[in-house]
Design brief:
- With 258 residues, the protein is an alpha/beta fold.
- It has eight helices and eleven strands.
- The longest helix is centred in the first third of the chain and has 28 residues.
- The structure holds S-adenosylmethionine (SAM).
- The site of S-adenosylmethionine has 22 residues, from strand 5.
């Protein structure tokens, strides 16, 4: 009996202590007005996306009718520097078609190891600049080493976030994404941030493996059709300018900010 009472007594003291602890914790967990702002933004963003069961190469999130592909991890970065790449993609054809001029500011979004960044840097010359943006710090450090190895001085690496390229407003003449857009976890937010970073009249170029062509041996979620790219880009006020179809396995779809 005594033992029971003493246990009851301990139990009620324990309950009181627990109640006080819980009250303190819930007070601590009360969102500040800044937190509610962030939560509201996240909720608004989420209404753009539909959750689905993830497919093998997807993240289980659909945007405008397609599932978003998983990000290529930095562990696979060697594939970006493979010897056969120049022959497979013919980057010189793309660069010629873009007609970049010395002194321009270009943003290579999702630059990876910088395979395109240094080639873009050559086109804009020492008076121009290439912002090389990536979301993986490991990619940024590989890119920095590549640029140092090549003696390239006009590439500025930028660690972006999943939702923003973090570039100065109205600072960029041309933004390019090579094999990137289909794997952006927040394509709408990133595209908004790119549009903000473009100068009026600036261009944004989507380079994607051609989904229309079954002979292009790339996983389906890592390819995009021209129709899909145009649907998504024009939803952000971008005007389609032209599609470059001279590349072996990709297409480059060019838009202009009005
Ligand atoms: C397939 S790799 C292509 C790299 C490079 N464009 C090339 O062609 O060599 C895709 C890159 O996009 C980057 N990426 C994914 N989401 C991103 C985001 N939200 N912002 C910036 N980079 C992103 C990845 O980290 C990865 O380096």
């Amino acid at each position: 009996m005594h033992r029971t009472r003493s246990r009851n007594c301990r139990t009620s003291r324990t309950h009181r202590t627990l109640a006080i602890l819980l009250a303190c914790l819930s007070a601590l967990a009360l969102p500040s007005s800044a937190d509610t702002g962030v939560a509201a933004q996240a909720a608004a963003a989420d209404t753009r996306y539909e959750r689905v069961v993830p497919s093998r190469d997807g993240i289980g999130k659909r945007y405008m009718g397609r599932e978003i592909a998983g990000v290529m991890g930095w562990e696979g970065a060697q594939w970006l520097e493979r010897d056969s790449r120049a022959r497979e993609e013919r980057p010189e054809l793309l660069l010629r078609a873009l007609a970049l001029a010395p002194g321009m500011t270009v943003a290579d979004i999702g630059a990876g190891t910088g395979y395109y960044a240094w080639q873009l840097a050559k086109q804009v010359g020492p008076g121009g600049r290439v912002y090389a943006v990536d979301v993986q710090p490991e990619m940024i450090s590989m890119l920095d080493s590549q640029m140092a190895k090549r003696g390239v001085r006009n590439v500025v690496s930028v660690l972006g976030s999943e939702t923003s390229v973090k570039l100065p407003v109205a600072s960029v003449d041309l933004a390019i994404m090579v094999d990137v857009y289909h794997e952006l976890a927040y394509p709408a937010e990133v595209l908004d941030s790119i549009v903000r970073a473009l100068k009026p009249g600036g261009r944004v170029v989507f380079v994607e493996y051609r989904a229309e062509d079954p002979a292009v041996a790339i996983k389906p979620l890592h390819k995009m059709s021209e129709t899909q790219v145009r649907r998504e880009a024009t939803a952000h006020g971008l005007q389609w300018e032209r599609s470059i179809e001279s590349l072996p396995i990709q297409h480059a779809i060019v838009f202009r900010k009005p």
